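USER:
I would value a second opinion on how I read folds in token form. Give me a protein, with the fold worked out from its sequence. Write it directly below this note and I will take it from there.

ASSISTANT:
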Amino acid sequence: MIKYIGSKRALLPEVLRCVGALAPPGAIVADLFSGSARVGRALKQAGYRVVANDHTSFAHVLATGLVQADSDRWAEKAARILADLSRLPGRAGYVTETFCIRARFFQPQNGERIDAIRDAIEAMSPEPELKAILLTALIQAADRVDSTAGLQMAYMKQWAPRANNPLELRLPPLLPRPASGGSIAICAQAETVAASIEADIAYLDPPYNQHSYLANYHVWETLVRWDAPEPYGIACKRSDVRERKSAFNSRRTILAALTGVLDALRCRAVVLSFNDEGFLDRDTLETLLRERGEVEVFERPHGRYVGAKIGIYDPQGRKVGKVGHLRNTEFLYVLRRTRGAE
């Protein structure tokens, strides 16, 4: 799985416990902010049917490849194609020029291989699920050899040791289809999806502060869209990062956005993930949820992402800020709805 700020890897046991207390395997769980697809994949592995949604193209690909696609259908074919793609010689293109020369996210030899493999995937026009698996494999391979602290807002001043490793394509960790049925991946705004689906439980892990996932992972968005956008800034971000804003990344609009999703949902229970660095505090969230039913809150201390531990630097590599704190508190709010569930 890719490095991802806000990843719920350490919280997966608690998330699965909360979901399991609300409904048995076989139930439908809507993961409306699927991100890296780590939670959606874990839910599928536990036997749930998952509706995984995210508004970014790269997250939709990850959800399609890791949640919707089933290993019993695609693993053998995808493995053969990945083996063929692994033998392609590198060929410099957009990734090499933009993310190896103008910026330094990858060593040029790996950038050339990314370019060649991505062009080949596009040329073969595979079925959507198969394409998502291949792109997921390429994203994961690139993530293993990048030179960042986990975010694509900047790259390391000196090459990270892993950046010197050769790019290696591996079959993503696909799962078989649960006996209860298949899962699906959607690419849309959360409120739109919430109003259009039937689910037993909704798992919500929205952005909760100013950090935009599109800006943080713009390289993956470009790798998936393959649209050669005009880059800007030292990090060579996509030009549309400036326009594709989420209401959840604004202190002024996040409460209305979350309220809209909750009002649109038609399910009997909600598990909401948030932390104490978010724009909404615990009292506000509990008040919002208690208007709709019974609420339990679980909390856990958690280390901050590695970039926060390193410190704050200017474009010339000079340290210009101090780390405020190294740990935060993660919250899981469990809502059993008694009002507004229909």
Q: What stands out?
A: The first helix runs from residue 12 to 22. The radius of gyration is 20 Å. The first strand starts at residue 28 and ends at 31. Residues 130 and 297 are 39 Å apart (CA to CA).
